[in-house]
Amino acid sequence: MTHPWFAATRAPRVLAHRGFVPRDSDGIVENSVAAFAAAHGAGAAYVESDCHVTADGVVVFFHDDDLSRVTGDARAIATVRHAELDQIMADRGGLATAADTLDAFPTLRFNLDVKAAAAAQPLGQLIAAHADRVLVTSFSDARRLRALAAARHLGGQPATSAGRATMGRVLAALATGSSSLVARALRGVDALQLPERQGPLRVVTPRLLRAAHAAGVEVHVWTVNDLADMERLLDLGVDGLVTDRTDVALRAVDARL
């Protein structure tokens, strides 16, 4: 049975990467409350974000493990308390904590990447009550599974996509040509979220798409910002585009529906 996370729209899906920062935004940064509001306002049903935890244990949406790129502050997020981080982000679109953002946008679906080991359990506990509209992912399968376990312990069943080790097993199984091995490698995941290429290697191929779809698993490609690339991948049959250009991607998808 398809997880409710996928019910917001039919595929292909547009996942607003770290929210949406329109090009005419003044001072708004990624992964802020304003960025999620802009994604919602543009018509996105899905937003992608990343999870870290503050010094006093608050799960916040940030991609990097420090503040330097977004705020010019070199400190690690894990060393800054929530109240101070809230002040730092006040004129940059507003600090997005996991708890407040899930409550503030009750119709959005969230694709949440566990970036820090310390964020896994508290994130899982937070999303348990919102599990129908959350997909948990991480490069680290250990972090991903820890968050899922915490949510399931409280009765929540979030969707999930493959971590790096799981994705490696899928690709290795695909190389053998064994559909049963591919199905086994895909067991327990709802989506594969990956770049089109990894260095010189093309990862997203017709063969991968056929195998994933045969197992009932979607394929979402990141991060796709060029219209020509979007159209080419949609022609290939991908199920989702993770993009900074939410407006462009929504128009590209709408043109096909």
Write a structural description.
- With 257 residues, this protein is α/β, with parallel strands linked by helices.
- It has a domain at 10-159: Phosphatidylinositol (PI) phosphodiesterase (TIM Barrel, Alpha-Beta Barrel).
- It has helices at residues 33-42, 68-71, 82-88, 98-104, 117-127, 141-153, 164-176, 179-186, 206-214, 227-236, 246-254; strands at 13-17, 46-53, 59-61, 109-114, 134-137, 159-160, 191-195, 197-198, 201-202, 218-222, 240-243.
- Helix 6 links the parallel strand 5 (134-137) and strand 6.
- Helix 5 runs parallel beside helix 6 and helix 7 runs antiparallel to helix 8 (179-186).
- It is globular and about 55 Å long.
- The two termini are 24 Å apart.
SSE topology:
Blueprint: E1 13-17, H1 33-42, E2 46-53, E3 59-61, H2 68-71, H3 82-88, H4 98-104, E4 109-114, H5 117-127, E5 134-137, H6 141-153, E6 159-160, H7 164-176, H8 179-186, E7 191-195, E8 197-198, E9 201-202, H9 206-214, E10 218-222, H10 227-236, E11 240-243, H11 246-254
Parallel strand pairs: 1-2, 1-11, 2-4, 4-5, 5-6, 7-10, 10-11
Antiparallel strand pairs: 2-3, 8-9
Task: Summarize the model shown.
The chain contains eleven helices and eleven strands. With 257 residues, the protein is an alpha/beta fold.
Low-pLDDT residue intervals, each spanning 5 or more residues: none
DSSP E strands, number:
11
The rounded Rg comes to 18 Å
Proportion of residues in helical segments: 25-40%
* Helix count, DSSP H or I runs of 4 or more residues: 11
Give the terminus-to-terminus CA distance: 24 Å
Portion in beta strands? 15-25%
Mean pLDDT: 97
Structural shape = globular
What is the CATH superfamily label of the domain at 10-159? Answer: Phosphatidylinositol (PI) phosphodiesterase
